[in-house]
Design brief:
Low-confidence stretches: 127-145, 147-152, 239-255, 483-489, 506-524, 963-993
Number of strands: 13
Number of helices: 43
CATH class of the domain at 7-238: Alpha Beta
Strand order of the largest sheet: 2-1-3-4-5-6
CATH topology of the domain at 7-238: Rossmann fold
CATH superfamily of the domain at 7-238: Alpha/Beta hydrolase fold, catalytic domain
Strand content: 5-15%
Radius of gyration: 32 Å
Mean pLDDT: 81
Shape: globular
Distance between the termini: 48 Å
Largest sheet: 6 strands, parallel
Length: 993
């Protein structure tokens, strides 16, 4: 028996209860020889009477109980090195409050002795059931413990927010955070605290048998409740708490992506990888980049997770980056490495290299670190913009310091792909005995015939593929749990019957001429999936197979299943004609029961429906996309996915930040789905599917452009434009012209106005011929064309173009439409730069009045309009008014000092100060502005140079050194170079995935 460290188990009872409620658990643990050898059991007692009997006594509040538990922790448990809390009902809220109060007091590091927390029937969002009985009870308004069980109690929610942030999502141990695994389980028949209540807000949750009271009365060691607690105790006896890590710089971008390793997937021991782990963990200074390569389902990610866990336990900093979200996750890594926000913004908008920034920080770290790139099946995602990944200048590079190490998981086993500086480790299927261990670890104890020999035989048939082994064990577990006899596919009940059916199917496969599994694992998994899908069909869950195939056609990124499946187009599809949302969700539940999909909740997504996502293993995507039905009904499967995604976008303009959370979830699927729908295969084309796919591509490109992800946007658009003949369209058809319009926008945002001008000139010609000169789409292209001219400083040429567009927009979209407002602002700026400041001022004030009435005063475009107003005032010598306008706008912007619009306002403010002879104040402001612009834009950017010149003039440096004429400082500054910018639909964009 493995020697384990001592563990102290503390049971915390619930409302109106006592320690005796835990006796069934205590008896089972004391009778478990393995647990009894290292586990000491404690039952924490606190008073929880329904009513106050004596007037000289009070009923303790939850905070009082939490503090009493802390005293118990510090005294009675002072010698305990590893503690596990198991709670029931209100006891879970008590422990959460204990955690939160220690975090608030700056003592989170003292929580490090707690190794795990398991909560049963915890009313995390309140017990609505009690609302129906409170009005009949005497204690309804008098019991302080009961009051905090009411739905969405503020104190409870505050504690939970702290626990999620500083405990569940913690990066290590410090005064302000402490990582502790925490899981919440609800009873399937619990009416007091149903599973939907117990699962909030924690991502690690589940449902077990029982009601609110029987959930903690396990009848034997085979029950889920006991197995959950047992697993927590075994883990606490063998694992160390992750080491303390330095406090990370806070940033709003940290909520966009997590780079914390998903340790919750370490649900069973890792088998058969000891040699590989030794090879990777050895301190070889010549091998700092390791690639775990193998077929999907071979356990690469699980192996990487184990390596990450062991590295973190030794004091190594670890970041886990899913390659499907490479941009947002690497931005999160930059934040955790302490990069200044202005540098991050500059890098992610393309003014500097994001890869260079992150790697400069990584190579300057003093502490050991491990960076994991998971699911890099397309190595191009890690490559530099203009070369292969083997160049070593993209996201994947060789660390220059001995304490740094990189780990990659990928299906690509070609060593030339990764370069000579990378060590490629082939992750092969498991040996028969190791595969047998995987099966036995996952099988329930009550499954008959679970001998090692039978497990080894099934492992051999399944080729030792971990995903296939897990799916087989889950299938057998499900059959035995459901107790459905006579309707199971082929009568499968145990290892032997599963093996017999799997062998029969494999042997009947056409062209199956080899026992070598290296090339046929995908086929084997198809049969493994087939067994489970047949079982669901026989149980009446007939929608499950097509649902799984439908989602397999999407990207491997998290799939927002509930938002997709509630769209009307699903029931209209021939695949799911007439089905209800309830039926479709029930089918997903069946898939989840057999482990074919993994539902989870996206953290920090406020939209509860959008946060509900599921994932398929990459092998499931690969196998099921090649399914015979999917290939024969390509338009049905891929077309429905297109229609669902497009329906998701209704009313959510990608240009507005309030829509970006949804687009962040949707975009990875759209980017891969549209080319797969239109460019692959030779299937008959459907005009409606084609039009919908192109509209989805256009909207997705707009989102990518406005968030600064120009590379993915360019890739998506270029492939569709250049190969439009494959789906029956020409470059001058209106759908392709729409994509070419976005292509011109990309050129503008990349600082290529000449190229943009030519592209947009051609688009205007095409749109004018098809749609007319004053059609809304043509006007949009005309405005972007005028913007390209503005970007080149051709103000006189731009004025008549913009004036004609304004006149047309007034008729087509109305004088107060958002697009009309932007064009009117552009026209005013052109007039201002032509020297007609008074005329420009009047125009700008009209625009600003409308913007203040319709839009928020802090939107970037409104701030840019106010900058132009201040500039027009300064040009007319109204310096005090210009100063007041700039100061008020800066105040409205709050702390966004480094936003482009605010930096322009700061420059105009300095101009107004110098005009008034306030050189000292101007010098102070300009000195800081120059530093900020160098960081954000670079030392050679025109705006940086204008700031440098104005600062020199304010200091009275001779004119021949500032490119100015011989004037006094005030007069010189009045003619100092002013920022020349152009109108944009979204002046300030922040990149996101």
């Amino acid at each position: 028996m493995t020697t384990r460290k001592p563990v102290d188990l503390v049971f915390v009872h619930g409302l109106f209860s006592s320690p005796s409620t835990w006796q069934p658990f205590v008896d089972l643990i004391q009778g478990d020889a393995e647990l009894a050898s290292f586990v000491s059991v404690h039952t924490f007692r606190y008073e929880s009477p329904p009513i106050r009997v004596r007037i000289d006594r009070r009923i303790a509040e939850v905070d009082d109980i939490a503090d009493r538990l802390w005293t118990y922790y510090e005294n009675e448990l002072r010698d305990a090195a590893s503690i596990v809390f198991v709670t029931h009902s209100q006891g879970g809220l008590v422990v959460q409050r204990l955690l939160a109060r220690q975090v608030w007091r700056g003592r989170a590091d003292k929580l490090s002795r707690i190794k795990n927390i398991v909560m049963f029937a915890c009313p995390n969002s309140g017990a609505e059931f009690l609302l129906s009985v409170r009005r009949f009870t005497f204690f309804a308004s008098r019991n302080p413990q009961e009051r905090q069980l009411r739905p969405f109690d503020r104190a409870v929610m505050e504690a939970q927010e702290t626990v999620v942030r500083a405990v569940v999502q913690a990066q290590g141990v410090s005064k302000t955070e402490c990582f502790i695994p925490l899981a919440s389980y609800g009873g399937v028949s619990d009416r007091i605290a149903p599973p939907i209540v117990t699962s909030m807000p924690f991502s690690s949750n589940g449902v077990v048998d029982g009601d609110h009271f029987s959930i903690i009365k396990p009848t034997g060691r085979e029950t889920s409740q006991y197995r959950i607690v047992r697993r927590a105790l075994l883990g606490a006896g063998e694992s160390e708490q992750p080491p303390a890590s330095s406090s990370d710089t806070s940033s709003e971008w940290q909520v966009r992506a997590s780079v914390t390793p998903p340790y919750g997937r370490r649900d069973t021991p890792l088998q058969g990888r000891a040699s590989l782990m030794r090879s990777i963990e050895s301190p070889n200074p010549l091998r700092r980049v390791h690639v775990l390569a193998g077929l999907g389902g071979s356990g690469k990610s699980r192996l990487a997770l184990e390596i990450a866990h062991r590295a973190e336990a030794t004091g190594c900093r670890v970041w886990w980056v899913p390659v499907t979200r490479i941009n947002s996750c690497m931005r999160a890594v930059a934040v955790r490495l302490g990069a200044p926000e202005v540098e991050i913004e500059r890098a992610w908008v393309g003014s500097a290299s994001a890869t260079d920034l992150v790697w400069r920080l990584l190579n300057s770290q003093e502490d050991p670190w491990l960076l994991v790139f998971d699911n890099a099946d397309d190595p191009g995602h890690l490559a530099p913009y203009d070369g292969p990944v083997s160049d070593g200048s993209g996201w994947l590079r060789e660390p220059t310091i001995a304490k740094g190490k990189v780990l990659v998981t990928s299906r690509d086993r070609n060593e030339s792909t990764w370069g000579t500086w990378s060590a490629v480790h082939h992750v092969s299927p498991l040996q028969e005995s190791d595969g047998a261990a995987v099966l036995l670890d996952r099988l329930r104890p009550e499954v008959s015939g679970r001998s090692f020999e039978e497990a080894r035989k099934l492992s051999a048939v399944l080729g030792g593929l971990p995903l296939a082994l897990r799916a087989a064990a889950d299938y057998i577990n499900d059959v035995n749990t459901k107790k459905i006899w006579g309707s199971d596919s082929a009568g499968i009940r145990d290892l032997a019957t599963y093996r017999a059916e799997a062998r029969r199917r494999l042997e009947s496969t056409t062209n199956s001429d080899s026992g070598d599994l290296n090339e046929s694992l995908g086929l084997e998994m198809e049969h493994v999936f087939g067994l489970s899908l047949e079982l669901l069909t026989e149980r009446g869950v007939t929608l499950a197979p097509r649902l799984l195939k439908l989602f397999a056609c999407l990207n491997i990124a998290p799939i927002p299943y509930h938002v997709l499946l509630r769209q009307d187009v699903v029931a209209e599809s021939p695949l799911f004609h007439g089905s209800s949302l309830k039926q479709r969700i029930a089918a997903l539940g069946g898939l989840a029961d057999l482990g074919l999909v993994e539902p989870h909740v996206l953290p920090d997504v406020n939209d509860e429906e959008l946060a509900q996502v599921l994932s398929l293993h990459p092998l499931a995507h690969g196998v099921l996309r090649q399914d015979k039905e999917v290939r024969q009904r390509h338009l049905d499967y891929y077309g429905l996915n297109v229609q669902m995604l497009l329906a998701m976008t209704k009313g959510l303009d990608p240009d507005y930040p309030e829509s970006w959370v949804m687009w962040n979830v949707l975009a990875p699927h759209a980017v891969s789905l549209v080319p797969a729908t239109l460019l692959q295969g030779t299937w008959p084309r459907d005009r409606q599917v084609t039009a919908s796919a192109l509209e989805l591509a256009r909207l997705t490109a707009r989102y990518l452009i406005v968030t600064g992800l120009l590379g993915p946007a360019q890739d998506l658009i270029d492939s569709l434009i250049s190969q439009c003949h494959l789906f029956g369209l020409d470059r001058d058809d209106r759908e392709i012209l729409a994509l070419r319009h976005e292509e011109g926008r990309i050129a503008l945002d990349r600082g290529e106005p000449k190229a943009a001008e030519e592209k947009l000139r051609q688009v205007i010609a095409g749109r004018t011929q098809i749609l007319g000169e004053d059609h809304a789409d043509t006007l949009a292209s005309r405005h972007k064309f005028a913007k390209a001219i503005l970007e080149q400083g051709r103000w006189a040429e731009a004025e008549p173009l913009l004036r004609s567009i304004v006149n047309a927009e007034n008729s087509v979209r109305g004088p107060e439409h958002a697009d009309t407002m932007v064009v009117r602002h552009s026209l005013a700026r052109a007039i201002l730069n032509l020297g007609r400041a008074a005329e420009a001022e009047q125009m700008i004030r009209e625009v600003l009045d409308i913007r203040r009435r319709i839009w928020s005063p802090t939107t970037p475009e409104t701030l840019f309009v106010r900058r132009t107003l201040a500039k027009s005032l300064a040009e007319q010598g109204k310096d005090a008014e210009a100063e007041a306008e700039a100061r008020d706008a800066i105040r409205e912007a709050g702390d966004r000092w480094h936003a482009p619009a605010v930096m322009h306002l700061r420059y105009i403010l300095a101009v107004a100060l110098v005009h008034q002879g306030k050189e000292a104040a101007a010098i102070t402001d300009l000195s800081q502005l120059l530093v900020d612009r160098i960081k954000a834009l670079g030392p050679d950017h025109p705006e940086t140079e204008r700031t440098r010149v104005l600062l020199a003039q304010a200091r009275g440096i001779p004119p021949d050194q500032t490119d100015g004429s011989s004037r006094q400082p005030g007069a010189a500054a009045r003619q100092a170079p002013m920022p020349r910018t152009t109108a944009e639909d979204s002046p300030v964009v922040l990149p996101t995935d």
